[in-house]
Amino acid sequence: MAEIGIKDLKSGASRVIDEVAGGTSYVVTKRGRAAAVIVPLEDAEDLVLAHAEELITMRRRARDAYRRGRTKTLTELD
Known about the structure:
Layout lengths: L1 E4 H6 L1 H9 L4 E5 L2 E6 L2 H10 L2 H15 L11
Parallel strand pairs: 1-2
Antiparallel strand pairs: 2-3
């Protein structure tokens, strides 16, 4: 992940947003220390969904079913 200082972010915000929209992610630094992350919207949505309680519950149930051998092959789903 690329790094960008807060000063550079301020002076080039439009360019940085265009780059992020194109898929680039940035760690924003303030006085040389990581302070924030800027990621494309799709990545942010994935991150939020990955931590949504309903999906976490579904993943846990699916993993439990897999461990118990209660799974189906793709051909069985048709």
